[in-house]
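hi! just following up on the protien thing from before. the input was this:
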Amino acid sequence: MLTIVPISLDEANAFVTAHHRHHGPVAGHKFSIAVADPFSADSIAMQEPQVCGVAIVGRPVARGNDDGWTLEVNRCCTDGTRNACSVLYGAAWRAARALGYSRLITYTLPAEGGASLRGAGWRLLGVRGGGNWNTPARPRIDTDQMLRGQKLLWEAV
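and the predicted 3d structure came back as:
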């Protein structure tokens, strides 16, 4: 049985650094949560729940979504534990609502199926974006090739 446990941003970022396929740590957040398996072999040996996934929730990256009532799951990362992503997405939405927010969104790459999001009751809003952060007026480090292109926007319901 997976359980939600508190986690600091530093700890969540360390988990992301160790386990995320294509993203690194984030600079800030509103809150972070973790999911732990209290019955894993490591947990029993150490007498503490073993973290198997994290969600980092912050302000929306896109300015148009940053209306004061919306948060974004900026990172959701697990070690592959079954249902951990769905548990995190569901818990993130409950926490965001408890804090007074009325909307929670996230983005996925088109190659990612979205089964965890659908399992947590989220809905696909459609395809968004496609550019990269580097523009002549605002030079940035170029976006990794894997992350270029359009993303899928999801919303908690």
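Residues 84-98 form the longest helix (15 residues).
The mean pLDDT is 90.
cheers
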